[in-house]
Amino acid sequence: MRSLIKKGPMMRRGYLFLALAFAARLLITQPLQAEGELKTEYVVLVTIDGLRNEELFGGADPKLLNNSKRSGAENSARLKKQYWRETPKLRREALLPFFWGTLAKQGVVLGNRALGSDAEVSNPHHFSYPGYAEIMTGQPQASIKSNKAVPSPRETVLEYVGRKFKLPREKVAAICSWSVFNSITAKVEGSIFCNAGFEAVPEKYLTPGMMAANEAQFRLTTPWDTVRHDWVTLTIANEYLKSQQPKFFYVALAETDDWGHERRYDRVLQAANYFDESLRTLWTTLQGSPRYRGKTSLVILTDHGRGHTVDDWVSHSARIPGSAEIWIAVVGPDTPNRGEEGSKGTFSQSQVAATILRLYGLDYRDFNSDCARPIGAAFR
135 in a domain, yes or no? Predict the structure, then answer.
């Protein structure tokens, strides 16, 4: 009887709709394969808390370098000798020599507003946990309104990658200076490996190269109860990278923001320079490993901006202009080597999760249907 039914225009349109709906469903549930096979097999995410666009794109800020009363610098002459140069380009190369001399040339750098490149947070708060929640989930999280250590309200990109690839816990790892990252990085406690704040490394993961930093963190006190020195974090992170060889690795440094809040611009610049040295250390480890070399993408950004003036540079909030302004860099085998050139456009912190998933060949819509789309400029 089915063959005797006449298929009119309405029925044919119905079949077409069903076919299109089925095809759309396949696109959502299957890994992305467009534009050829990607070379990235591993991703290393690095964040540096509250490092302003002024310092990344222009080096030491003349407004602060020449105003010790408002910068809080204890030895302005020494600071100028280290970081003052005649042009912004030379100043940024003095402050961040590895970033600008090596990494930027091998990838893209977004957020230089002087070139028409705008990168911003999408959350309304413009401080740390809301920013990191946005990075981790691909969208602002309405329930994250403070820096209180509460678990992520939804699965993070770290957890999702571990689940999709069926990875052991230690193969998705986060090593972080701020203790709140134990909450930021996971909805389900223990779903990934995280070592954050003043926290000893479990013996099963402790290597000889970690031991000194692991012990020293409890003696090298900082002005903050929840933030250890970035040197400790980087030392543990680099050793973990070599010993455990994670598929997805996150390193979160913090001292630029904390010294900013203390109004110590000299310490901010020193912490920024150490961040650059940390990138050099991690990159050297990656390039020295047959497992990682040529197969790893590095994603680097800050979680928020801060004030532009000599009075408000010390802080950041929705009320302080500049606090929403960030920068994002992506370096790796699937990213064009354009640096900051050709980076015009508007980019969002919410796009970072989808960009990471695209590098893995995973579909961000399966991770979070409300996730912002990947950064197109990050791909060839």
Answer: yes
